[in-house]
Predict the 3D structure of the following.
Amino acid sequence: MKLFLVETLARFEKDVKRTDTGFLAIATEVEDGKEKISEPPGKIKELLKEFQDILPDDLPNELPPYRTHQHEIVEEPGSKPTFRAPYRLSPTELTDMKKQIEYLLAKGLIRPSTSPYGAPVLFTPKPDGSLRMCIDYRALNKQTIKNKYPIPRIDDLLDQLRGATVFSKLDLRSGYWQIRMADNSIHKTAFRTRYGSYEYLVMPFGLTNAPATFQAEMNHILRPLLDECVVVYLDDILIYSRDMKQHVEHLRRVFEILRRERFYP
């Protein structure tokens, strides 16, 4: 079995080489328990170059388009705005928070807020030692009506891959940030910091129904290809084919949809 992964360099820079487009396709063959890394086929390289406009090094400095699914926060009847005082943060965390807020503002993903809602910020360590800024939406999530949209079972998805020999995996870049918040819910995403209060214009991480919203949008745009050559689990898109010739065509169809819908891997 061959596994072709189409991913950004930033996520796998320890394991792979940079290509001309800034993206990569790795063929991993397992023989006698040993893993080998080889260059991607020429057709895959050509395809990546053709679609390099949807494979940027970073998200564009603009909001995503309005999509079929936007994220709406529907609370239990009688709920009141949730508010929590900011958590105490270390000097290192404060420095990192300021940088991340400036980045989000520059990208247009957040804006200053006067909302009565307010969640605190906390940090969790990443595997590389850097810090991930998280918004603690637990109080808001507790009074949010849960979206029962089905998230696929991994074993059901794997059943669809029988007979395929070539695979590509696309991981959408900061996928949640490519979905807008519904206008009536933006103020509910507010978070408090010593530098001010801000609210998200895109779907932040940490909201209870965010996975359901994202899965629904992915299923919507990729529905013509589902269980034919594509399976989707949240922001992971797996393309599978019988052979390389068919695989190039399947990849092209997926890239065309992502370009049309302005989604960025």
In short: Residues 2-261 form a domain with the HIV Type 1 Reverse Transcriptase; Chain A, domain 1 fold (CATH 3.10.10.10). The CA atoms of residues 81 and 117 lie 5 Å apart. Confidence is low (pLDDT under 50) at residues 1-29.
